[in-house]
Amino acid sequence: MGGSKRQWIDILSVISNQQPNLDLAYLRAWADTLGVRAELEQALVDAQSGKP
Known about the structure:
This protein is mostly helical. The chain has helices at residues 5-18, 24-34, 37-49.
């Protein structure tokens, strides 16, 4: 995965703060289209566990 640790932490923060508002079906569909489904799923797991 490319990108900095800071970017990953920012992603986790957005997911954590917006969890109730996220349309996961929509995000997963786009993640599949863009080829980043594994990264999305890892971000969801990490955000849930509080792991940076």
